[in-house]
């Protein structure tokens, strides 16, 4: 078997770093608001360390090792000592700093966008040399060597099952033990449905106990099994296996989260914020998902806060079963000017929903107008920083209480800095350079509010339906609806691993479809010729992402998509290519070297609108009715990467990879309490600045010992041979 292409798994030394600036927005806060934001940020940063435990068996040790390295001395001293030793070059040290940055930016050694492994871009012996000449090693050689020996091989391993996240022998995950397969996931899913449990805040451990297969569903909480407070349920026999629901996952880290949420509560601006934080604390303390749902309800009702935040086990993209949430937390300040535009969009939402192509019976009975704000991010912890969010993800709350939309205003322009658009004509490159930021703002606004915020799920609870089973007609069959969500079903539990890419595709299509509306473009400050250019750029950018970027996130070996948004955009491109009439074309202009994407802008409002509209009807009908089989068949067809025909994407992938640009890493601020106010620190937009920001983020080495103890607790489930104790390092 050929060796894997290292460029797919490394961050190059020229990786760009950009500052996520929010100084003006933060400095405009009162002292009380700054303290509120600071303690929420601390809770988010501590909680973000949970992601290392959720990513791979070795990730907690990698964090502990690199955190010891960068806190024992300055980056400049680390660099100077390594180079002067003669055992490492300046390029070697740069490669290490970029690797460290990649680990910290993704909260683990797998990319948050794409799920592929991150390995150092320098030889193992050179990295070891830098570690052994460091101040951290001089201070405690036994601890550093113990950590290095425990994770060095895993850091560099690119065995097939280590290259990407996934089940069992096909990938790496810590949401499940390695002996779990898709069948195990389905069995556990059925058990959880029967006993009304959801997967957001748990992991699954499978082992033998007294000769019987046992599935341990371990809930995230501060409290452990031995604590007196009553817990969920006793051991249960289901399908001949023992099911054991326990708690105490990430206990020490969640204790730090709760301590900071308690402090933040002292500076809350109203009862809704206090009640929200109280419920989050209860959830993280006890493992109760209902408490987090309650906190989310308070959060939705807290309209237009000056400091916005959300925290918990949220997005399910990286669970191979699509049910378990990765921890994330964000803190941000409202951008009033941009928020006014989103407020106007919300005011028009009900009329815009009527323009969507599915029948009104497939739309929610009542549109609950959400809070929609543009935010300047102060803190975002997790495996990546999105451009926009539509939360909470709990189906029952979204249908009955509503949701919130946030556009991360300082993320959007930052993400376009220094970017080159390949595979386009010079005229289209100029169009993207001029209008891409505005077009993306339009797309994000529509995607979050009316994409994720639209559509009804048909449900049956007992003998009651939430739709008229006698009169509602399926537009694809012209007959009555014959499928729906039963009691205990959620979108995630039914659509599982398909769910994320499918829902992102639906939201992206809504954004494209409604970007044709002149009133929408006017809300975003564009009219006339400029509005037409923004509309064209919105479509061009989506189709460019589907053709020029998406296949970076596809694995030919496993024939598996590694990233939901990338798969969604590729599917949209295929739908538009299928529409014909020379609406969209991709040609190989230089054999094996270059491609050209062209979009006939005169046909967007005709051919393009019809193609996306017809596709949207199918997407929504299958989602509303829970028709996973039809959804899977359709989506798999458009997701196929073929190596023949008019568009040999499997062959063209090598051309796309040859033009690949490194993904940016965003440098965030730190805050620190000084008396009755809070100081904010900024850092250079470099690898050195990024690493420095992390070296100053936590006030003690306690986080290292907590992660090491969590690794030790789980090690027996993830290693064939019991690893060495880390007592020397703890």
Overall pLDDT level = 95
The fraction of residues assigned to DSSP E strands is 5-15%
Structural class: alpha+beta
Helical percent range?
40-55%
Major β-sheet strand ordering: 6-7-8-10-9
Shape: globular
Low-confidence spans: none
Let me know the number of strands.
Answer: 21
Q: Helix count?
A: 27
Distance between the termini: 40 Å
Q: From the alpha-carbon coordinates, what is the Rg to the nearest angstrom?
A: 25 Å
- What kind of sheet is the major sheet? 5 strands, mixed
What keyword list fits this structure?
27 helices, alpha+beta, four-stranded mixed sheet, single chain, 730 residues, five-stranded mixed sheet
Provide a descriptive summary of the structure in words:
The chain has 730 residues and is an alpha+beta fold. The chain is 48% helix and 15% strand. The chain contains 27 helices and 21 strands. A hairpin with a 2-residue loop joins strand 4 and strand 5 (241-249). The protein is globular. The two termini are 40 Å apart. The mean pLDDT is 95.
In short:
Helices cover 48% and strands 15% of the residues.
How are the SSEs ordered, and which strands pair?
Layout: E1 17-19, H1 23-27, H2 31-48, H3 50-55, H4 59-72, H5 75-84, H6 90-106, H7 124-132, H8 135-139, H9 141-156, H10 182-194, E2 202-209, E3 212-220, E4 236-238, E5 241-249, H11 251-265, H12 271-286, H13 289-301, E6 307-315, E7 326-334, H14 336-347, H15 349-353, E8 371-381, E9 388-391, H16 395-400, E10 404-408, H17 411-414, H18 426-451, E11 460-461, E12 464-465, E13 473-474, E14 479-480, H19 491-514, H20 518-523, H21 528-549, E15 554-555, E16 560-561, H22 564-578, E17 584-590, E18 594-599, H23 604-625, H24 628-639, H25 649-658, E19 665-667, E20 670-674, E21 677-681, H26 687-695, H27 702-718
Parallel strand pairs: 1-19, 3-5, 8-10
Antiparallel strand pairs: 2-3, 4-5, 6-7, 7-8, 9-10, 11-12, 13-14, 15-16, 17-18, 20-21
């Amino acid at each position: 078997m050929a060796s894997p292409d290292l460029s797919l798994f490394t961050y190059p030394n020229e990786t760009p770093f950009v500052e996520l600036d929010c100084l003006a927005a933060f400095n405009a806060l009162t002292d009380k608001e700054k303290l509120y934001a600071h303690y929420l940020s601390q809770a988010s940063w501590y909680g973000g360390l949970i992601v290392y435990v959720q990513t791979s068996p070795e990730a907690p040790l990698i964090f502990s090792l690199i955190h010891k390295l960068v806190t024992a001395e300055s980056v400049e001293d680390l660099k100077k000592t390594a180079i002067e030793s003669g055992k490492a070059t300046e390029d070697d040290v740069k490669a290490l700093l970029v690797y460290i940055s990649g680990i910290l930016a993704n909260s683990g050694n797998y990319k948050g966008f794409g799920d592929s492994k991150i390995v150092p871009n320098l030889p193992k012996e050179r990295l070891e040399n830098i570690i052994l000449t460091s101040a951290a090693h001089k201070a405690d050689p036994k601890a550093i060597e113990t950590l290095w020996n425990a994770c060095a091989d895993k850091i560099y391993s690119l065995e097939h099952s280590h290259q990407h996240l996934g089940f069992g022998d096909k990938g790496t995950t810590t949401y499940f033990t390695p002996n779990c397969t898709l069948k195990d996931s389905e069995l556990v899913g059925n058990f959880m449905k029967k006993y009304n449990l959801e997967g957001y805040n748990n992991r699954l451990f499978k082992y033998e106990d007294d000769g019987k297969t046992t599935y341990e569903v371990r809930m995230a909480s501060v409290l452990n099994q031995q604590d007196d407070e009553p817990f969920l349920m006793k051991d249960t026999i289901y399908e001949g296996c023992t099911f054991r629901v326990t708690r105490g996952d990430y206990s020490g880290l969640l204790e730090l989260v709760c301590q900071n949420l308690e402090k933040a509560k002292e500076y809350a601006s109203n009862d809704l914020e206090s009640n929200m934080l109280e419920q989050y604390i209860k959830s993280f303390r006890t493992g109760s998902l209902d408490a987090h749902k309650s906190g989310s309800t308070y959060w939705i009702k807290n309209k237009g806060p000056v400091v916005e935040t959300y925290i918990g086990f949220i997005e399910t993209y990286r669970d191979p079963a699509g049910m378990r949430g990765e921890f994330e937390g964000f803190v941000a300040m409202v951008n009033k000017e941009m928020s006014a535009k989103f407020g106007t969009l919300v005011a028009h939402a009900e009329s815009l929903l009527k323009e969507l192509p599915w029948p009104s019976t497939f739309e929610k009975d009542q549109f609950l107008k959400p809070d929609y704000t543009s935010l300047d991010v102060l803190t975002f912890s997790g495996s990546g920083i999105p451009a926009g969010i539509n939360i909470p993800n709990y189906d029952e709350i979204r249908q009955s209480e509503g949701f919130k939309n946030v556009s991360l205003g300082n993320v959007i322009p930052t993400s376009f800095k220094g970017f080159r658009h390949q595979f386009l004509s010079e005229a289209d490159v100029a169009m993207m350079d001029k209008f891409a930021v505005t077009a993306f703002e339009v797309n994000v606004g529509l995607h979050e509010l009316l994409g994720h915020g639209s559509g009804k799920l048909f449900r049956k609870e007992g003998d009651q339906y939430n739709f008229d089973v006698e009169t509602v007609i399926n537009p694809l069959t012209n007959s009555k609806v014959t499928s729906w969500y039963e009691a205990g079903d959620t979108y995630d539990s039914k659509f599982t691993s398909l769910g994320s890419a499918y829902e992102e595709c639906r939201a992206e299509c809504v954004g494209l479809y409604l970007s044709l509306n002149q009133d929408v473009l006017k809300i975003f400050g564009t009219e006339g010729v400029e509005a037409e250019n923004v509309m064209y750029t919105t479509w061009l950018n989506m189709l460019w992402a589907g053709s020029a970027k998406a296949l970076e996130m596809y694995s030919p070996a496993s024939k598996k998509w590694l990233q939901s948004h990338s798969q969604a955009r590729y599917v949209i491109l295929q739908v538009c290519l299928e529409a014909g009439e020379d609406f969209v074309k991709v040609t190989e202009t230089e054999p094996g070297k270059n491609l050209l994407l062209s979009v006939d802008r005169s046909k967007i409002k005709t051919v393009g609108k019809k193609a996306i509209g017809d596709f949207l009807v199918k997407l929504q009908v299958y989602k509303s009715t829970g028709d996973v089989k039809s959804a899977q068949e359709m989506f798999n067809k458009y997701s196929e990467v073929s190596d023949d025909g008019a568009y040999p994407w499997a062959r063209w992938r090598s051309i796309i990879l040859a033009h690949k640009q490194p993904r940016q890493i965003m440098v965030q601020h730190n805050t620190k309490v000084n008396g009755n106010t809070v100081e904010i620190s900024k850092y250079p937009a470099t690898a050195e600045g990024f690493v420095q920001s992390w070296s100053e983020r936590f006030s003690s080495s306690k986080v290292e010992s907590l992660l090491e103890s969590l690794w030790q607790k789980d090690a027996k489930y993830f290693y064939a041979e019991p690893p060495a104790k880390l007592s020397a390092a703890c």
